[in-house]
Amino acid sequence: MNLAFRLKMAKQKGEALIRERKIDSLPVDPFAIAVDHDILVEPKPDTEPGVSGMLLRHGDVFGILYATYIPSEGYQRFSVGHELGHYFLDGHIDHVLPEDGVHASRAGFVSADPYELEADHFSAGLLMPSTLFSRALSRAGQGLVAVESAAGLCRTSLTATAIRYAELTDDAVAVVVSTGKTIDYCFLSDTIKSLPQLTWLRKGTPVPRQTATAQFNADPSRIANADRTEADIDIMDWLGGTRSVEAVEEVIGLGSYGKTLTVLTCPSLVDEAYQDEDEDEDADLEERWTPRFRR
Ligand SMILES: [Zn+2]
Fold this sequence. Notes:
Blueprint: H1 3-20, H2 30-36, E1 40-44, E2 53-58, E3 61-67, H3 73-88, H4 92-96, E4 101-105, H5 114-127, H6 130-137, H7 144-154, H8 158-168, E5 173-179, E6 182-188, H9 190-193, H10 212-217, H11 220-224, E7 228-234, H12 236-239, E8 246-253, E9 260-265, H13 267-294
Parallel strand pairs: 1-3
Antiparallel strand pairs: 2-3, 2-4, 5-6, 5-9, 7-8, 8-9
Helix pairs in contact: 1-5, 3-5, 7-8
The structure holds zinc ion.
């Protein structure tokens, strides 16, 4: 089974749990789900940096500890969702915690370990189930404002929400998380993927020079202060390719997380997609009617 498929299944497992529990409004409460399964959840202030949370096992009794060094409710809820992923996903307990002890997690799409990534995707599906999330997006605008609005409703972190936004929106967006001069990850929406010959911004590649994000990241205090900036750009500045499209680059520092979120939006590309649909409909109508006229 390839990794992309495994991650999709993990996300769907998180969403299935929401359906089983008949949850039909946001936010989803991962703490309540844990309690219902007799899993004790507690904060753990003294985890080592990078550890987002822990799953504990004693026989068939499980507990969750979540890190608090990042004082973000969204991050902490996502971390609890990640540990629930290890609890609910097939094969996880056997792999990460086959006997009594502790599994230390690195949640938040930063690990390359497939089990950690599966647990992240489970958490995303659990806290941002596609039906409820898409409904929220339909009245949330575009770009960073949409991410912030959905994050407020789901009580999830800006980064996890931005990734889910890129996955589920019809808008032409790219979501980039960076640390200093380096890209941590980049997610593209389906609409923006339609641009020809894009360069994939892989983990570890440099933030393109001369972008608003590169300038922003040169001053760590702006990241720590959760400053923002914005610039009108050409999408080729970031994604290369062969087609010039006007875009907006929105940048926000993620405070003590030490990273920066960049949301790139091409508003005109969405309009084009709608136009294409309209044209297709016109063409369909013509096809349907023309034979009658000929008779
Ligand atoms: Zn984990």
